[in-house]
């Protein structure tokens, strides 16, 4: 079920999970506002539950000499947390987002240029990294950056009793023995990046990957709804 509000400058979409088996793991409700940053080439504000991220994309445009690449565009991700200065954790997050999204961008079509992605954390209630990757993908689409495929990131948590929680919040993450991130591409649903914290067995890893793949399908459906409504309005 989708709840959609469209105005002249932005569009808000809410995706609620289909009704059915209440015990089945589900993603938290997602809201998306496309184009909130008017001076950017593309922008998006994405909420997953209470976690909210704002992303602005600039480019392809002029690149600094020290970052220029003769055969492709330079992709740079800049992340800013809600409070405090940037640290090692923020840089680690930037690298994960950059690697996850760079593989999707057709950078060779715009050599000697730069594509800059600015991310601002507005509120973190769990699932911040997956929210940043998904928000970046929507902002790149809004900027009409050429892409090989779309990307969808899903986070899971393994609890002490072996239960797998899909799209966990902060409280669930604090009680988890392991946290896993999977980023899928939209063509063959292959994993293009992953990150694991904690110890998890190979069997449990496969279980988590299977669950994440099903959740990624719903994220891709959400993308189609958002972009379809945006261009139908335009």
Explain what this protein looks like in three dimensions.
This protein is an alpha+beta fold. It has a domain at 2-18 and 26-148 and 217-233: 2-Layer Sandwich (Ribosomal Protein S5, domain 2), CATH 3.30.230. Helix content is 29%, strand content 33%. The protein has helices spanning 88-102, 128-142, 170-175, 202-233, and strands at residues 2-6, 11-15, 30-34, 42-48, 51-61, 74-80, 114-123, 151-158, 164-166, 178-185, 191-198. The strands form two sheets. Strands 1-2-3-4-5-7-6 form a seven-stranded mixed β-sheet, with helices on one face. α1 packs across α2. The longest helix has 32 residues, at 202-233. The protein is globular and about 50 Å long. 38% of the residues are buried.
Describe the structure concisely for a colleague.
With 234 residues, the protein is an alpha+beta fold. It has helices spanning 88-102, 128-142, 170-175, 202-233, and strands at residues 2-6, 11-15, 30-34, 42-48, 51-61, 74-80, 114-123, 151-158, 164-166, 178-185, 191-198.
């Amino acid at each position: 079920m989708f709840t959609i509000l469209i105005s002249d400058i932005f569009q808000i979409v809410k995706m609620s999970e289909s009704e059915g088996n209440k015990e089945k793991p589900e993603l938290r409700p997602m809201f998306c506002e496309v184009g909130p940053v008017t001076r950017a080439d593309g922008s998006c504000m994405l909420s997953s539950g209470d976690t909210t991220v704002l992303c602005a994309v600039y480019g392809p445009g002029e690149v600094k000499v020290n970052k220029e690449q003769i055969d492709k565009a330079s992709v740079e991700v800049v992340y800013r947390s809600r409070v405090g200065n940037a640290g090692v954790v923020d840089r680690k997050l930037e690298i994960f987002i950059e690697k996850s999204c760079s593989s999707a961008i057709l950078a060779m079509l715009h050599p000697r240029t730069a594509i800059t992605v600015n991310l601002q954390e507005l509120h973190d209630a769990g699932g911040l990294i997956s929210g940043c990757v998904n928000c970046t993908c929507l902002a790149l689409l809004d900027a009409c950056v050429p892409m090989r495929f779309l990307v969808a990131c899903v986070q899971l948590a393994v609890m002490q009793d072996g239960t797998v929680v899909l799209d966990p919040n902060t409280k669930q993450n604090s009680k988890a023995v392991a946290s896993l991130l999977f980023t899928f591409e939209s063509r063959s649903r292959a994993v293009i990046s992953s990150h694991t914290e904690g110890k998890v067995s190979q069997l449990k890893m496969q279980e988590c990957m299977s669950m994440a793949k099903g959740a990624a399908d719903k994220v891709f459906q959400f993308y189609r709804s958002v972009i379809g409504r945006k261009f139908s309005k335009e």
